[in-house]
Amino acid sequence: MNTQVIDDKREIHELVDNWAIFSDSGNWERFAECWHEDGFMCATWFQAPSADFIRARREGFDKGVSIIHFHGGFTCDVSGNRAVAQTKMTIGQRAPVHEVLVDVVCTGRFYDFFEKREGRWGMVRRQPIYEKDRLDVVNPNESLNLDAEILAGFPEGYRHLAYLQSQIGYAVAKAGLPGLKGPEIEKLYQEGQAWLDGAESPGRPDIIK
């Protein structure tokens, strides 16, 4: 591996970590620096250009929405001025569900499309991969009964996270987002390879709400 590729991977890894730290701490100016101006974010609750996502994230943060990210292993493929990175992650959110305070932790990967423009790497698409999740009541003295029909209406990889988010007013995707297996993740892998091969667009998922 040549020195330039090593430097590129190091810079991209730092960008991925910066995204989580600046997003979770409310440093919106530094958070915006992680993206290129045409970046696109696609999550359970929001699919839109990065500028709109930053605005929505900030509004939620100011209202007390508690979403925390944690990173694990990282890998990255670089092809010239294009790159695709994968990072093991958890998304944690705390909120009341049926008047009971809960924590939801969703485990998966961030699958990120990067491009180097005028010497600067930036994110052009961030696509979480939702592999599994769980819900825990914060106070062990309380109990909670979920609506089984509502819960089953969301994909297995993020159904508890979706349940929570829908309860607090978000319009959550009911299909189209990638999980551990299935056509959605295969489509994402194909889009990643196409991006490295020079495709005009990093692609988009086919969201159903």
Overall average residue pLDDT: 96
The number of helical segments is: 6
Q: What is the CATH topology descriptor? A: Nuclear Transport Factor 2, Chain: A
Please describe the biggest sheet, giving its number of strands, its sense, and whether it closes into a barrel. 6 strands, mixed
Task: Please describe what this structure looks like.
This protein is 33% helix and 37% strand. Strands 2-1-6-5-4-3 form a 6-stranded mixed beta sheet. The mean pLDDT is 96. With 209 residues, it is α+β, with helices and mostly antiparallel strands. The protein has helices spanning 3-25, 28-32, 50-62, 148-152, 159-167, 183-196; strands at 35-42, 47-49, 66-79, 82-97, 100-117, 120-137. The protein starts with a helix and ends in a 13-residue tail after the last helix. The protein has one domain (3-185): Nuclear Transport Factor 2, Chain: A, CATH 3.10.450.50. The longest helix has 23 residues, at 3-25.
What's the structural blueprint in terms of helices and strands?
Layout: H1 3-25, H2 28-32, E1 35-42, E2 47-49, H3 50-62, E3 66-79, E4 82-97, E5 100-117, E6 120-137, H4 148-152, H5 159-167, H6 183-196
